């Protein structure tokens, strides 16, 4: 998959919006290491998120 296609598929794991070109955070799941993306709004509000791979829940 090309890098541009990967960017297009990046969505916030908390609210589901497309985070391409925004001030979003990308980090690895503390449990399984899967890549997780969160938008600035969800990070600021400390919305919960679930890892799509292992189900880990974090603030």
TrEMBL record:
Residues 12-55 form the Small zinc finger protein HVO-2753-like zinc-binding pocket domain. InterPro entries: HVO_2753-like (IPR044720), HVO_2753-like_euryarch (IPR049683), HVO_2753-like_ZBP (IPR011668). This is Small zinc finger protein HVO-2753-like zinc-binding pocket domain-containing protein.
């Amino acid at each position: 998959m090309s890098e541009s296609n990967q960017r297009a598929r990046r969505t916030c794991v908390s609210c589901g919006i497309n985070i391409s070109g925004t001030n979003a955070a990308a980090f690895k799941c503390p449990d399984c290491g899967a890549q997780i993306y969160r938008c600035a709004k969800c990070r600021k509000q400390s919305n919960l998120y679930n890892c799509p791979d292992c189900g880990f829940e974090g603030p």
